[in-house]
Structure formats: structure tokens, C-alpha cells
Amino acid sequence: MKITRAQVEHVARLARLALADAELDALTDEMDAILGYVETLNSLDTDHIVPTSHAVPMENAFRDDTVRPSLGTMKAVQNAPAAAGGCFVVPKVIE
Amino acid sequence: MTSKYEVVIGLEVHVQLTTATKIFCNCSTAFGSEPNSQTCPVCLGLPGALPVLNRKVVEYAIRSGLATHCSIAPRSIFARKNYFYPDLPKGYQISQYELPICEHGRLDIETTDGGRKSIGITRIHMEEDAGKLLHEGDGSRVDLNRACTPLLEIVSEPDLRSSDEAIAYLKKLHQIVVYLGVCDGNLEEGSFRCDANVSIRPWGQKEFGTRAELKNINSFRFIKQAIDYEVERQAEILEDGGRIIQETRLFDTATGTTRSMRGKEEAHDYRYFPDPDLVPLVVSPEWVEQVRRGLPELPEAKVERLVREYGIPVYDAEVLSAERATADYYDALVALHGNGKTCANWVMGELQRALNDSGTAIADCPIPPAALAALLKRIDDGTLSGKLAKQVFDAMWQTGEEADIIIEQRGLKQVSDLGAIEPLIDQVLAANPDQVAEFRSGKDKLLGFFVGQVMKASKGKANPAALNELLVKKLKAD
Questions:
Q1: Cα dist from B354 to A56, B328, B340, B351, B360, whole Å
Q2: Is A68 exposed, middle or buried (0-12, 13-18, 19+ CB in 10 A)?
Q3: What is the pLDDT along chain B (478 residues), one digit of tens a residue?
Q4: Chain A closest-CA separation from residue B227 CA (Å)
Q5: Could you tell me which residues of chain A have a Cβ less than 8 Å from any Cβ in chain B?
Q6: Are B138 and B84 in contact (CB under 8 A)?
Q7: CA angle, corner B100, sides to B143 and B92, nearest 5?
Q8: A53, A66, A93 member nearest B140 (Cβ)
Q9: Which residues contact B46 (CB under 8 A, 6 or more apart)?
Q10: Cα dihedral: B38, B44, B47, B53 (round 10)
Q11: Which helix (H) or strand (E) holds B4?
């Protein structure tokens, strides 16, 4: 096995995913298969290959430091499930 | 108890950059605006928005790296740091992980015994700030104006060995980033924030002890308090045979203690990976050179130059160089006047006093260097005594008028004409026969009394040298 059920559980918890036992089993098998497939790379000599950090062969996309109009408070919060005083309102995060 | 243990401190400083716009979008970074008024799809983390790097942020990072003797990476990338918190709309923070823009630097600090010590800088990387949370009623309110504001995280090696060294390092770093113009240095507004990694170990032990991370403390005084408290706390645990737990602790300003911030431990599993939204950053040697040429003179170099060029004491040079604006004022003043020490005395004395009393920043000083230089020339040419010059200075500060106009209008010219001083001396001597007798029987100290009386009679305008000379002559003669 490339990945254990406990690791899948851990990653699911970090991603705030509530998974049923059956789902955990299925995902463990699937992720194991994916990792097994990716492992094919190990049969190649990659010693002199620079790690790929980006799929597009491109570098240095910049913008200038010039202020442009923002959305504004009204538009920013208009689709929020809850808003007050121009802020998004979320369940209390500290006691 | 703590003397049994060696203290080991590493600091992570978050420096908010003074760019006009955020790191990955064109929203303004201005402080104190209406909540969420400075947001757009990128900094709100809306689906489909594409972050694009602000070129100035890179320039400021290179500037900071060069000023702290870092090597600038020819190629660096951005990574996603994944965690959930309501002030982080995307569910990840864009930061740098494997390939930061600056590495292997150092900062030299002065230790309390007057020595010097080099503190290693592990890395400097660019990242976005999170938003702000306000806890009100039964909910938390989220303001994302600060989200995506550019930060540099400057990480030191665990080279610091006391809270005093930590403060010396922070003050030096603060001075440098403000000098560089990359940060406004405002601690209250959170422009310069510090996390401290603190551990202790028995003297002689090679391995580091388990560390506690003290979070987001926004004053130098609190940082010292937090570190000192934490060192005591850890020493007590070890003395009782306990074990230090690696954890994040919050400093409580009300009690001066630190307390555990439980529940954040698991979140340390950030699962960094390269951000596919951002292409690699390639910094050419030409770009680095261009930034290097644009670097301002830094405090250490400035102190050295002021001492060398103007012959002032190191102490004066350090006071004058503490802030770039003060040093610029002083440079301009000496260029116009010529005497380094005289200028230093006035900038550190009268000028600083007036600035402090009125709470004015030197950039808004109502007396520009040229006006102060003109005043000092009136001392040099004998028009004013030092004391009169201070009166003229105060009037200049109040009215904004030039020295010559005030001297003329208020008749503050120093009187050097002996013919005008002599009758005043005669008056004073005639009015104080007892003191004259005492002086003549050997009580030399009374000279000061006579000088004061005559000066008063002249309304402070008598030339002190001329007055002294004539007074002594008269007292000894009769």
C-alpha cells in the first residue's frame, strides 16, 4: 500500500471533509492506485531534470503598482449568506 | 533559576510593504477604510480570479535582501499554504516555501556589553496578509481590506541568546526597513509584527530545547516581556522535571504572561505546493544591480560617513542617523552652514526639542535647513549670542519668518559696542557695593553674578565675550 486509511482520514480532516467508512475505504483504494501509477516515474532517470513547478513554460507575469477601483463594500458582501456593518458574518471562531 | 539555562531565540518578522496596491491585485492598501471597500474578486478569493504579482513587491524584497546581505535567488516560486480560517478567503495563503527570493543573510547588532554580534538571516520571502476578524455578539465579522496586502517574512537563525539581543535585532531591522522605504514601521497599525521562537537548554548542551512560538506581539516592550516570561516558565517546567511541549502561545498584555493556543497544532500540516496560478519569478543579475544602485545609504554607513566627513562624535552621528529624515535634514544643514558640530548641536538640541514639544515630524518642520543655516550664520558673525539665537529660533518656529527679519523686527541684535555696555556695568556695580567688596577680597565666584546682572540689564543682548572682558577689567581696576 502506498497510502494508509489513517492518512486518508487525516487528509480528509484537514480538508474538513466528513467521510463515511465506506467512502474512506473506497478513497484509500483509489488514491493508492493513483500513487501507484505516478510511481511509474521512478523507473525514469530524472536526476538532471529540474522539478516542474508550473505546467506552462512562462515566467515573470507582473502588474504595475497602480490603484484601480475596487468592487466596493456593497458589491463585495452582496452575495454573502450573512453580512453586517459592511463585514461578512461567520459563526464565532473564538470563545 | 534561568542562569542554569541558555536561552535560544529565533525571530520571524512580518513587514508590511508600503506599496500602493496589494500583492496580487490592484486594490488599494490604505489603512482604516470602510470594511471590505478595498476588495475585488482576487483578494476576496472568488472562483476564477487570477492573481498577478505586483512588480514593486519584488523590488522591495530584493532591496530588503541586499540591505541584509542576502543572496537573491535567480529563480523563485510561490506556494499555497493550506489552512482554514475565516480571515483567509481562499482556504490557502499564497506564500513562498521551497524557493524564497532571499536567503543566507545577516544583521549585525550591538550587544548590551557594547560588543557586536552577527545574527544570521535564514530567509526572506514574499506572501499575502490575511483579513481581519472582529468578534462581536454571537458571530465573527470578516473585513478583507487587509487580505492580500504584501508582506515580507524575515526569518532569523536561532542566533539570539537573550531578550535584549532580540530587541536589538528588531530595532535594527525596523530601522533598516524604514530607511529602505519599504515599510512605514508603524507598530500600532501592525506594519511590523513579530513572532518569537523561544527555547532553553542547559549550558553546554548542543541540541536545542523544544521551542514555544510566541505570536504576533506588536511592541518592542511586549516582546521583551513575553520572552522573559516564557524563559521563566520553561525553566520552571524543567526544574520540576517536566517536559516542554512544542506549541503556539499568545502573549497577554494585561497579565504579562503567555498562554497556550491549543487546537492550532494540527493546522501546522500546511501541505504546501507550488501555486499553479503564478508563474515562476526570475530575477536577472541586471535587475539586482539596478536595485542595488538605488539603495539609500543605510544607518551604519551613514554614521561612519558623518563621523568622517563632519568630524562629529559617534554618539552624535548615531542620534542623527536614527531616522533617515533627521539625517537628511542634518546633511542639508551642514552643506549650507559648514560646521558639523554646531549643526549637530542645533539639530539634536533646539530643533529636536521643538519637534518633540509640538509632536511634529521632521518632514513637516516649519524651519527648513536653509532657514536654520541662515540663523546659525548670525551667531558666527556676532550678530547673535547663543542665547539670543534660541529666542530667534522660537520666533521662527512660531511665525515661519526668516531669522534676519525677526532680528530686525524685534531688535534682538547682540550689543558688542563697549560704549553701550559700559554704562550698564557701571549701574550694576553701583547698585551692588557689598558684592563688589566681596569680589575684591577674593570671592571670584561672584563674577557670574555680575555677568548675569549686566546681561539682564541689557535684556540678554550684550555680547558675552565683550561683557566679560570689560567687567573683569572694571572690577580689577578700581
A1: 60, 18, 20, 5, 8
A2: exposed
A3: 457 899 999 999 999 999 999 999 999 999 889 999 999 999 999 999 999 999 999 999 999 999 999 999 999 999 999 988 899 999 999 999 999 999 999 999 988 888 899 999 999 999 999 999 988 878 899 999 999 999 999 999 999 999 999 999 999 999 999 999 999 999 988 899 999 999 999 998 999 999 999 987 888 989 999 999 999 999 999 988 888 888 889 888 888 888 887 655 455 688 999 999 999 999 999 999 999 999 999 998 999 999 999 999 999 999 999 888 999 999 999 999 989 999 999 999 999 999 999 988 888 899 999 999 988 988 888 788 888 888 889 889 988 888 888 887 877 777 777 777 788 888 888 888 888 888 888 888 888 888 888 888 877 777 777 788 888 888 877 5
A4: 25
A5: 10, 13-14, 16, 53-56, 58-68, 70-73, 76-77, 82, 84-94
A6: no
A7: 35
A8: A93
A9: none
A10: 70
A11: none
Q: How far is A10 from chain B (nearest CA, A)?
A: 10
What is the Cα–Cα distance from B302 to B317, expressed in whole angstroms? 8
**Is B21–A53 a contact, with Cβ atoms under 8 angstroms apart?**
no
Distance from CA of A11 to the nearest CA of B (A): 9
Judged by CB atoms closer than 8 Å, whether chains meet at A87 and B86 is answered as no
Q: Do the Cβ atoms of B413 and B392 come closer than 8 Å?
A: no
A53: amino acid identity, one letter:
S
Run of H or E residues at B109:
strand B102-110
Query: What is the distance in angstroms between the Cα of B16 and the nearest Cα belonging to chain A?
Result: 15
List domains and CATH numbers for chain B: 2-289 (no CATH), 296-410 (no CATH), 418-477 (1.10.10.410)
Q: Which CATH architecture has domain A1-44?
A: Orthogonal Bundle (1.10)
pTM, entire model:
0.82
Contact B298, B176 (CB under 8 A): yes
| Residue-range domain boundaries for chain A | 1-44
Q: Determine which helix (DSSP H) or strand (DSSP E) holds B415, and give its type and residue range.
A: none
For residue A62, count other CB atoms closer than 10 A to its CB: 14
Do B150 and B184 touch, CB atoms closer than 8 A? no
> Sign of the CA dihedral B331, B337, B341, B342?
negative
Q: How far is CA B280 from the centre of its chain?
A: 34
* SS3 category, A74: helix
Phi then psi dihedrals of residue B301, to 5 deg: -65, -35
Chain B residue closest in CA terms to A84? B141
Cα B55 to the chain's mean position, in Å? 26
- Which of B42, B141, B146 should be substituted to probe chain A, the one whose Cβ sees the most A Cβ atoms within 10 Å? B141
State how far the Cα of A83 lies from the Cα of B123, in Å rounded to an integer. 39
Give per-residue burial for B163-195: e unless 16+ CB within 10 Å, then b: bebbbbbbebbbbbbbbbebbbbebeebbbbbb
Question: Which residue type occupies B25?
Answer: C
